[in-house]
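Researcher: Please predict.
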Amino acid sequence: MFFYRVYGSLGFLCRQTMNKSKLFNNLNHVSPSVINLKTLLWKTYKKLKLSEALRQSILKQAFEGKLVPQDPNDETAEKLLERINQEKIKLEKGEQLSIQGL
């Protein structure tokens, strides 16, 4: 869509300029800018793709536990989830008791 706007602006310039020499002078000034813009947009697109790949790589390493040294004394994920569920059940029961007491 952005490229369409740039090329649309060039078309507007062509229609508004009656003198051919003036038209070519204007296009000579605009054309390098358009080429630079296309190059800049392409480089930006490539960098965004690279950053997304890097992000995915970091997330993968994080889930595999490779980003920081692992503490052997830490509880396993299963035990942690079980403890969280038990605390959640206790809280739910506590909320039900307080509601029933009203």
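Model: The chain has two domains: 2-70, 75-102.
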